[in-house]
Structure formats: structure tokens, C-alpha cells
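Hi team,

Below is the intake form for PglZ domain-containing protein from Candidatus Chryseopegocella kryptomonas. Please confirm the fields before the structure is written into the shared record.

FORM ID: S-0412
PROTEIN: PglZ domain-containing protein
ORGANISM: Candidatus Chryseopegocella kryptomonas
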Amino acid sequence: MFPIEIEKRFPDLWEGSNDDERSRNKYEKDFLEDLLKRHKVKLKSKLRYFKIIDPDFGVGVEQNITTYAQGQLTAIVVNFVDMLAHGRSDSTVIRELSFDESAYREVTRAWFVHSSFYRMLKTLSRMKNVVVFITTDHGSIRALRGSKVLADREAATNLRYKYGRNLKCDEKEAIFIEKPETYKLPKRGVAINYIIAKEDYYFVYPTEYHHYLNLYKDTFQHGGVSLEEMIVPLIKLTPKL
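The structure came back. Fields below:
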């Protein structure tokens, strides 16, 4: 569903969350259950949904994965890669370990081969009649060029998209949206417009411009318009028996 459709179908959930993109993620299970309902999918067993944020919880899911696999549908969200991308902006250690794109991929691979997620896949590969789908909600892009933006204090804080009153930026570096509904985006109020970064740009306010320009340069971001962010993989795995 498009954001404008989600807002209309779930007004309480939409209004009940703030503008932090992660706050809406806590309703993922509700949205999944509604999706099944809309498509008239009746599960023979209870839907299980887990979100792995810390390693200990991941180990707990791993220890019970054979039980969960007996159900008709288990959804597991593994949040490490997203946390790594965000953490790279804030942590000197993580940035040092993943100083360029190749190193970033190596850090991700090193995590994966030692993760509870990988061990779950190996366990599931030995079970009959288990099908696993792996995908992601978005990609990311290495942000290298700053784009100066003017906005009020109420504007969204994301580095690749913003909405608010009287937003201004270089339209060569972003898509400027005056009528949100034409892009299937919530209107949010009078005089609210959106800007969405193109290519590898990231938005920076004039206040302390050079500080934030350097802080977020060469970090991995999402929310803008690039193939790296918008095309997501989907793989279907079946056991080799």
C-alpha cells in the first residue's frame, strides 16, 4: 500500500506515531495481519512475528526455530544491517571498520556468517517442506554530496527526504513535491510539501553547515530516489534433500 492508503486505512496507528520512521515499524505485525485478511488468507496456525534487534533475542529465536517452522507462517525481521548503516553515522569505531563500500560489505558478511540468522537457515535447510523467502524493505546509498535545504523546525529529520512548510532546495538535487497526493503521499496539512533527494545527495541545513556536511558524508542512507534504495532483492530457498 502507498503511504496515503496506509494513513486512510489505519488513522489511529498513523496519528499515534511520531515522525521518527522507526516508530511506525512497531506496527509491522498489524499491517501483515491486515494484508493476509485483505487477501483472504486464512492460516491454519497462529502467525508468529519476531523482530531481532539484539543478539540474545536472536539466539532465543534460533533455539526455537524448529518449533516455529511447524507453523504455516513465521515472519522474522533481522535488524542488524539497518542498525549498522545508521550506526556508521554515529560511531567512529564502526566507520573505521567500514571505511569504504568494500569494507562495509565485509563487515556485513562477517556478521552474517557468525549470526543466529545464518544458523537458523542451516537448521531449516535440513527440514522437509520448509520454504524460506528473504527480502528487505529498502536498500541504501552511499551519500557523498551535500544539498543545502531551508526548512522550519518542524520539518522531518531524515537526510534523504523531508516534509514541512516552505521547504527550499536546489531542484537539480531533489524532487520537489507541492501536491503530495499526486505521489500517493499524505497531505499532512496546508502548505506542507516534500523534497526527496536524488542520486547520492543528502540534505544539510545552513546552520553549522560544514559540521553536518562532514559528519554525514560517506554514510549509507535511505529514503531518496536511487536504484540502490528502491530495487530490493527477493530470494526463495527450499531445502536440498
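SUMMARY LINE: The chain has twelve helices and twelve strands.

Thanks, M.
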